[in-house]
Design goal:
9-stranded mixed sheet; 13 helices; single chain
């Protein structure tokens, strides 16, 4: 059994507990127009607000267009109906052979480790995911499925966000997965090292170091303003523990729809040893239409980005499509 030690547990859990969940509180802290409250509360009824206070502290006070605020503030636009936007835009519900286990691509599966997140991003493609019905309700069935398919080499822990789980629950998962001989890698998709860097403590690092599975972590940062000193230190700790680090971003109108911003994001990430991997076109989830960047504009942004950066710092522009065998490059 992997030993579990977590001297900072109270700290990150307290940060998680004290996250802002009331739109009025968020507007007050950032000294914004209280006239925004009515629309924000209506949108929050459809998809609740959640933002760690440390992340909110990186936002500019008095600026309703701050790129970090725009990612978390509920807006009236979320309550309108937009053609082509739906609850399950990438066909995940149909790709579950076992509840909570997604098998869409060859050689790897994704486990919905939890439905909980430290932050609720307004563009999240799982904002309407049926976690209550499709969550990890049968761990034995999942392990049985993984054991029976020798073509699988990688398991992805996602959610929600798997790092909101305790070290004990993560340890149980990691030990169970490590006992499957044909698995080689453990990939974790998490926003917590960026939005709640206190979570990257010695207990978590010990779990990742001691598994025989090669650890890979895919972060999610959309704007260079997200990477403050604390987030940079958390990323450095992960890298020092031997974790391979990548970043996936989403191209978002009013947040990062600029080659200059994306270039700064790539440079900032790489300065901490993170490879800018994917830049996703928006998944067309219901309530997020106001974030969409037109494909021709996205292609033009990427062309400008490639002129600014060496090839290894330019992420791949992709879209995810229900039923496709892989993510689709947008050229």
């Amino acid at each position: 059994m992997i030993p579990v030690t977590n001297p900072s547990r109270q700290s990150w859990r307290q940060e998680l507990t004290e996250a802002i969940t009331d739109p009025a509180d968020l507007l007050r802290v950032l000294e914004l127009d209280p006239g925004l409250i009515t629309a924000a509360q209506a949108a929050a009824e459809l998809f609740p607000l959640r933002a760690p206070r440390g992340f909110v502290a990186r936002m500019r006070k008095g600026d309703p267009h701050d790129p970090l605020l725009r990612q978390v503030l509920p807006l009236g636009a979320e309550t309108t109906t937009a053609s082509g936007f739906m609850d399950d835009p990438v066909g995940e519900v149909q790709a579950m052979p076992v509840p909570g286990l997604l098998h869409k691509y060859h050689g790897r599966v994704l486990l919905i480790a939890t439905g909980a997140c430290a932050i609720h991003c307004r563009y999240c493609f799982r904002r309407a995911f049926p976690y209550a019905k499709a969550g990890t309700t049968d761990w034995r069935s999942m392990l049985s499925y993984l054991n029976q398919d020798a073509s699988l080499s990688e398991v992805i822990l996602s959610g929600g966000d798997p790092l909101v789980l305790s070290d004990g629950r993560l340890a149980k998962m990691i030990v169970g997965l490590g006992a499957i001989p044909h698995l080689r890698r453990l990939r974790i998709h998490s926003r917590l090292p960026v939005v709640l860097p206190e979570r990257v403590d010695q207990g978590l690092l010990a779990l990742l170091k001691r598994s025989r599975l090669q650890p890979v972590m895919v972060l999610h940062a959309n704007h260079p303003q997200e990477i403050d000193e604390a987030a940079g230190a958390a990323i450095t700790r992960l890298r020092s523990a031997g974790v391979s680090l990548f970043n996936q971003a989403v191209l978002l109108k009013g947040v990062n729809d600029s080659a200059a911003i994306l270039a700064e994001l790539s440079e900032t990430l790489f300065s901490f040893g993170v490879i800018p991997y994917y830049l996703h076109l928006l998944d067309r989830v219901r309530g997020a239409a106001h974030f969409e960047v037109a494909e021709d504009q996205a292609v033009a942004i990427m062309a400008a980005l490639r002129r600014r950066l060496p090839g290894y710092l330019a992420p791949r522009l992709v879209r995810e499509q229900a039923g496709a065998a892989a993510k689709i490059p947008v050229l």
